[in-house]
Amino acid sequence: MATMASVATSTSRISYPMTHSFNTTCNFASPFRSSFSSLAWKKVRFSIGNRGRKLGFRNCSTLRISCGGGLTEIKEDEFSDVVLKSDRPVLVEFVATWCGPCRLIGPAMESVAEEYKEKITVVKIDHDASPKLIEEYKVYGLPTLILFKDGKEVPDSKREGAITKVKLKEYLDGLLKTVSIAPAWICLSGYVTSRLMTQVHDTHLSPHDCLSGGFAVSGGSGDYEGKVTAFVIMTCLVAATGGLLFGYDIGISGGVTSMDEFLLKFFPNVYHKEKNLKEGGSQYCKFNDHMLQLFTSSLYLAALVASFAASITTKAFGRKISMLIGGLIFLVGAVLNGAAMNLGVLILGRLLLGVGIGYANQSVPVYLSEMAPPKLRGALNVCFQMAVTLGILIANLVNYGTSTMKKNGWRVSLVLAAVPAVVMTVGAVFLPDTPNSLIDRGQKEKAKTMLQKIRGTSNVDNEFEDLIIASDMSKQVENPWGNIMRPRYRPQLTIAVLVPFFQQLTGINVIMFYAPVLFKTLGFGDGAALMTAVITGLVNVFATLMSIFTVDRFGRRPLFLVGGTLMLICQIAVGSIIASVFGVDGLGTFSKGLGNITVAIICVYVAAFAWSWGPLGWLVPSEVMPMEIRSAGQSINVSVNMFFTFIIGQIFLTMLCEMKFGLFFFFGGFVVIMTLFILFFLPETKGIPIEDVTRVWKSHWFWKKYMPADDSTHV
Asked: CA–CA separation, 32 vs 28, rounded Å?
């Protein structure tokens, strides 16, 4: 309830949620005086508001503003009297002078102690001078907060590590809702007294309210103020176009490698092998060539290496600078590819494209996570994957068009990669930097102005304070790469490694890299293979749109689980169909009907990936990283993704030749493993503010054992 009343024996308190606090020492005069004589009232302390000017008191000797409360430091031998024997809740903070996070939380504790002075007592205790308490209450990390009520520790009230003011208030409000502020008989007295105070405030208490267990304390929601602005949406959409670079290259490489003119110029062995196999031979092996695979995969090896440099750039100069660098380098690579006259220049261009993608993939997801409001963070971050899918579709359409050119069609396809590079480069010039990045680089005033602009309100103090404290905490950690290896960051490290690993082992890049090649292997003609790739690209786009509209409604886990289940079914179905047609020797042809069924199943598979592992494989790792390890964590995420993209791209055609239809069952097995991983080890992060997502690990059945702070909070 919003109104609180409590009465003590010698100093009685009636508290109302108003704006001013007064102390008054009075003789209580009313017809009900005799009813409360047993309470021996000699003083009554009222906390009242603007409407308390006419109190109806006689012989009032003093009236003064109360500035009571505040944070008090106590010693171990005072703990029993001050904490355990207190008639009101007591919040105890265990601190140490050498503890960096303790210093960071200090201002928030002081502020909350004053703000909640009518509800609780707040004290702090020196960890090093209180060995008995440390042992009794198992204080292993600093700072540690514990709420006590009626001489006992309130269940589930222990919290370790630094905490921002907004989260501290959420923590307290949640706990105080579970405990009563006063015994029932005292509350009943407060009810009768409240009836005398109708001149002061319109109370709506009843004896039933009191006898049901005391007055509940109302608390704020702790949500940040602000709204979704057109500015932040446009900013995120422009930033997300960085995904066009990645998507266009994924789609363009498969189409180009299926063009006869391109194969004859750079890979004549593959060209002649394909022509010879048309007269008979195994369909599984006709594109098996390591240099052809290197053309596709070299880009991702460069992206892997570049992501580490991008991490340093992103942290030192901001997210938008990394996007700008990535766009410029990608632009140079696109020009070299389009003008290449030999295989060496072609591979060099691919390497530069990879560097650009490494920068974009490292910075764009982080940028989107930091700019987006928590309620739309999932949808706006999925825009990155949406841009990837659009890039793939555009590339497939370009390939379909250029394949009809008599000469240099492949050059047009490759050089048009410069278009998304220009879009991101120009966009990065005009994009604002994120408040997180500005704070991290010491530009706090500019950061607050930007936060007000993207939230559409001037009242951003709570969120801004959270960002300041989070940044200060991150600066206490000198080595984010070493820090991410510590036990408390084990969940984030695991997600940063396994999610991108599993994303590539879904087998999706088999479809996206080599779609035209794969469809030609299944017996489709050149034009039909490219058109089929366009169809799967369209499915990819629409399914990703579905993810944008559902990820913040249903959450991450349901999309992962449903997508994984459908992908498994499709992998088994495609593998079975290919086995029935080609068998082990690779001889046979698809009928038109069976070919169309296979394409339809592949489309379902692409859709399942596009609403689950596609966008969420980028979203989830970027949103679970606290600021002190965010750049390192995102670099690991991108590096693992690029490494296994490189591996799959480099060996897929060889695996298809060696494993034949069993390759699809191979990927299906990994889909089973990754779906079980999501089911048991990934907590839901929907709607949780990015700076507070760490708390989901503390409540997880498995990861919570890594979360006790130990020495990891001792900075």
From this structure: 9
- Tens of pLDDT along 209-250? 333 333 223 333 345 777 778 888 888 777 777 888 888 888
| Cα 609 to Cα 505: distance, rounded to the nearest angstrom | 12
Exposure string of 243-278, with b = 16+ CB inside 10 Å and e = fewer, is bbbbbbbbbbbbbbbbbebbbebbbeebbebbeebe
**pTM for the full predicted model:** 0.62
Cβ–Cβ contacts within 10 Å for residue 73, how many? Answer: 11
User: Given 26, 60, 67, 102, which residue is catalytic?
Assistant: 102
Is residue 376 within 8 Å of residue 228, measured between CB atoms?
yes
Give the DSSP H or E segment for 91: strand 90-95
Structure tokens at 175: 């706990």
Q: pLDDT, tens digit, for every residue of 478-512?
A: 677 777 888 888 999 999 999 999 998 998 876 76
CA distance linking residue 188 with residue 96, whole number of Å: 42
User: pLDDT tens, 586-619?
Assistant: 777 777 788 888 888 989 999 999 889 988 887 8
Give the separation between CA 173 and CA 315, rounded to whole angstroms: 35
**What is the Cα–Cα distance from 400 to 709, expressed in whole angstroms?**
56
Distance of CA 701 to the CA centre of its chain: 20
Q: Supply the pLDDT for residue 133.
A: 92
- The torsion of the CA quartet 53, 57, 61, 62, rounded to 10 degrees, works out to -30
The answer to whether residues 493 and 702 touch, using CB atoms and an 8 Å cutoff, is no
The residue to which tokens 């007064």 are assigned: 22
Crossing angle of helices 613-623 and 592-610, rounded to 10°: 20
The CA–CA distances, whole Å, from 585 to 274, 289, 603, 653 equal 17, 19, 26, 16
The DSSP secondary structure of 436-490, one letter per residue, reads HHHHHTT-HHHHHHHHHHHHTSS--HHHHHHHHHHHHHHHH-S-HHHHTTSGGGH
For 431-459, give one letter per residue: b (16+ CB within 10 A) or e. bbbbbbbbbbbebeeebbbbbbbbbbeee
Helix (H, G, I), strand (E, B) or coil at 65: strand
Measured CA to CA, the distance from residue 638 to residue 359 in angstroms comes to 9
- The answer to whether 533 and 403 have CB atoms below 8 angstroms apart is no
Q: What angle do CA 591, 593, 597 make, to 5 degrees?
A: 115
Residues 6+ apart with CB under 8 A from 80: none
Token pair recorded at residue 82: 């001050």
- Cα separation, 571 vs 415, in Å, equals 34
Catalytic residue among 26, 60, 67, 99: 99
Q: Is 102 a catalytic residue?
A: yes
For the CA atoms of 237, 238, 241, 243, the dihedral, rounded to the nearest 10 degrees, stands at -70
- Please state, in angstroms and rounded to a whole number, the distance separating the CA atoms of residues 443 and 439: 5
Q: How many CB atoms lie within 10 A of CB 39?
A: 15
Q: Is the dihedral of CA 554, 560, 563, 565 positive or negative?
A: negative
User: Which superfamily, per CATH, for 230-429+436-481+505-703?
Assistant: MFS general substrate transporter like domains (1.20.1250.20)
Residue-wise pLDDT for 266-284, tens only, equals 988 888 877 776 555 666 7
